[in-house]
Amino acid sequence: MSEPGGLQQGGAPVLEKDAEDAAPPGQGAGPDDGRPADHRFWSARRVPAAVVAVLLAAVAGVFLYDVVAVRAHRPAMAWRRGLAHQLAERPLDDPWVFVGAGVAAALGLWLILLAVTPGIRQMLPMRRPRPDVRAGLHRATAALVLRDRAMEVAGVRSARARAGRRRADVSVVSHFRDPDDVRADLDSVLTDAVHGLGLVRPLTLSVHVRRAGKKG
């Protein structure tokens, strides 16, 4: 496990124990126990948080140093005097004022977006076998499972699969069997495979079958 809470980045399933959801032994969470459906895993946002913290600490440190210097009867830094002069003299409709306001607004919206969205889009929440355990399946792993199951169908020459947050697309090239028969078998096998993934929200399946072209 590479992150607190049991999150693991990669292609393997993820397990996470929720201490607040712990239940006495023998009391599992059934489908009708009144619990809300599991949602996506939330990202720790370590890099944005670290960048914001470092920038705020640096700016606060510089301003604190300048304020202390002024209190000690030393002249304020030239950049702060220049900034105060620019803010006092420059009109609000100046292009540089618009540029600065736009950059500040964009950064603010970016931080708000990071705060209200879960992140970790590659991880699909799985059904809980117990109330104190959360599991997640990487989208690449789900696609690999569907591709391997498709290759088990007779008449499939090659297969490609892609799993999104709500949909799985499987493209297959058939050869010696009729494409309609291959498609029927694929629908049955892949539907079982999707349910076998154990996801909270089963992926919507889209299957595409084409006949292999003749060589020469």
What layout of secondary structure does this protein have?
Blueprint lengths: L13 E4 L28 H26 L6 H12 L5 H22 L6 E3 L7 E6 H13 L4 E8 L3 E8 L4 H18 L7 E8 L5
Parallel strand pairs: 5-6
Antiparallel strand pairs: 1-3, 2-3, 4-5
Helix pairs in contact: 4-5
Question: On the 0-100 scale, what is the average pLDDT?
Answer: 79
Query: Helix-strand pattern, N to C?
Result: EHHHEEHEEHE
Could you name the ranges where pLDDT drops below 50 across 5 or more consecutive residues? 1-37
Which strand order does the major sheet show? 1-3-2
User: Which overall shape is indicated by the principal axes computed on the Cα atoms?
Assistant: elongated
Descriptive overview:
With 216 residues, this protein is an alpha+beta fold. Among the domains are: 46-116, no CATH class; 136-211, GMP Synthetase, Chain A, domain 3 (2-Layer Sandwich). Helix content is 42%, strand content 17%. The protein has five helices and six strands, in the order βαααββαββαβ. It has helices spanning 46-71, 78-89, 95-116, 139-151, 179-196; strands spanning 14-17, 123-125, 133-138, 156-163, 167-174, 204-211. The chain has a three-stranded antiparallel sheet with strand order 1-3-2. β4 (156-163) and β5 (167-174) form a beta hairpin. α4 runs antiparallel to α5 (179-196). The chain is elongated and about 90 Å long.
Describe what is shown at a glance.
It is built from 5 helices and 6 strands. The protein is α+β, with helices and mostly antiparallel strands and 216 residues long.
